[in-house]
Design a protein that fits this description.
By secondary structure, the chain is of the alpha/beta class. Helix content is 30%, strand content 19%. The protein contains 13 helices and 17 strands. Helix 3 (169-176) crosses helix 4 (178-192) and helix 3 runs parallel beside helix 5.
Length: 447
């Protein structure tokens, strides 16, 4: 039985600036800078060299282990392969392509002769070769999620919640290109051997809900469910609990409770790959915020700079206080507008000083308990933060800090403006480093 998930907050959705604006095609960039890390896992290795001519959809980065390949988003000449500023922080090895504006499609892009006749293994291979990852921001390789869930999953959920304030990319996708979403969910149903699926969409997107229902028609194999608006309902564990009533255990995965969750953008990309043979080279994103003259929803080639995306919105009407990749709750502040769009970039958010939460010196925790009440993962942020402040990483780990989804609900509600999520990110990094050291020590002892 469906139920509400624990915790969460109700920020103003701030979507009015773009929720009625149709998706526009970005003016072709003169140069794209394509980072070799666009997925959860180790970065890809470039398989082109400086001076090579490349075409749209040509593979330019190959992965090993957990990951997904990367493809050229424009045709042209490889001008450089070097570290460039990266939207997730620091620098990342990138392939720089000078656009020839011919938009020549690679010979590698081939549609299957009969998509309906594909085996599950063939579908997974197509999804893998297309470089599809979670388009909601997590960027987990989609082929791995499908292959690991086959035979274990009895419930397929599509995430159309888009609960983060300001962002309307998924809303416009469902409204304008819902056929791709419905086609993608039916392909995923076929891969998992299921006859039904659910698309969860928050109630502030009523037009998208009605449109998807009309596209499903009389088949009734796909149920479109309206969800009461609440943040962070788009997180997969919270969405599972809301739709099915099942709770994913600490440290567990959705497959442990028989569920698989995919973003609606991911489903659309699966449709493009399986039906039309297209790899993932473009994505829809929202450029918005009070600092932007003309907020928009844009279809952009991967590797487009944030500066060009902002220019497409007619630039700044006032100096922004900060520019984020993503929304205000989970977004990452950028230090350089030369960073470029990757597969998980769903928004470029430009906030004025009035919009942005003020940066203040940390105050003393009031022990009010609000962070505990809103944490959707049933964690105790106040104590995790205290341990983090003192460098007591193992004690924080015992409180399941690794289960934190960094949704920002605790930051949003904290009256003392403690830098909670930042301290949890640091703690996770320290714990991963400790785990790597312990593993290396064990291997050295064996040797």
């Amino acid at each position: 039985m469906a139920q509400a998930f624990f915790g969460g907050v109700h920020p103003h959705d701030m979507k009015a600036a773009t929720n009625e604006k149709a998706i526009e095609q970005l003016a072709p960039p003169a140069t794209v800078v394509i980072p070799m890390s666009m997925h959860f896992g180790a970065p890809c290795t470039p398989i082109v060299k400086v001076g090579d001519q490349v075409k749209v959809g040509q593979k330019i980065g190959e992965f090993k282990g957990l990951g997904a390949p990367i493809h050229a988003s424009v045709s042209g000449t490889v001008k450089a392969i070097e570290p460039r500023p990266y939207s997730m922080g620091g620098n990342m090895m990138s392939v720089v392509i000078e656009n020839d504006f011919q938009n020549t499609i690679s010979e590698e892009v081939k549609a299957p002769a009969d998509p309906d006749a594909l085996t599950v293994e063939e579908m997974i291979e197509i999804v893998k070769n297309a470089g599809i990852v979670g388009m909601g921001g997590a960027t987990f390789p989609t082929h791995v999620k499908i292959s690991s869930g086959v035979g274990k999953v009895d419930t397929l959920i599509l995430n159309g919640a888009e609960c983060e304030p300001y962002i309307t990319a998924d809303h416009r996708l469902m409204l304008e290109q819902g056929e791709r979403v419905i086609g993608g969910v039916r392909i995923l149903m076929q891969a998992f051997g299921l006859k039904n699926a659910v698309i969860g969409v928050e109630a502030n997107k009523e037009d998208a809900i009605e449109h998807l229902k009309a596209l499903v028609g009389g088949k009734n194999d796909v149920q479109v469910e309206s969800l009461r608006t609440r943040y962070p309902q788009g997180a997969e564990k919270q969405l599972i609990q809301r739709v099915t009533g099942r709770e994913v255990p600490p440290g567990g995965l959705p497959a442990h409770v028989g569920c698989a969750v995919f973003n609606v953008g991911t489903a659309a990309a699966v449709y493009d790959a399986v039906v039309e043979g297209k790899p993932l080279t473009h994505r829809i994103l929202t450029v918005t915020g009070d600092a932007i003259k003309e907020p928009k929803n844009l279809l952009v080639p991967l590797g487009t700079s944030f500066q060009q995306i902002i220019d497409e919105g007619k630039g700044f009407k006032e100096e922004p206080d900060r520019v984020l990749t993503g929304g205000p709750m989970m977004g990452i502040a950028q230090y350089n507008l030369d960073v470029t769009c990757i597969k998980g970039t769903n928004a470029v958010l430009c906030l004025t000083k009035k919009e942005a939460a003020p940066v203040v010196e940390e105050e003393v925790c009031l022990r009010c308990g609000r962070c505990v009440n809103v944490c959707p993962m049933h964690l105790t942020p106040v104590y995790m933060h205290l341990y983090a402040e003192k460098g007591m990483w193992k004690e924080a780990e015992a409180l399941n800090v690794m289960d934190c989804i960094e949704c920002g609900s605790c930051n949003y509600i904290c009256p003392a403006r403690l830098h909670l999520v930042q301290s949890f990110r640091v703690t996770k990094g320290e714990l991963r480093a400790l785990a790597a050291k312990e593993k290396a020590a064990k291997e050295a002892a064996k040797a």
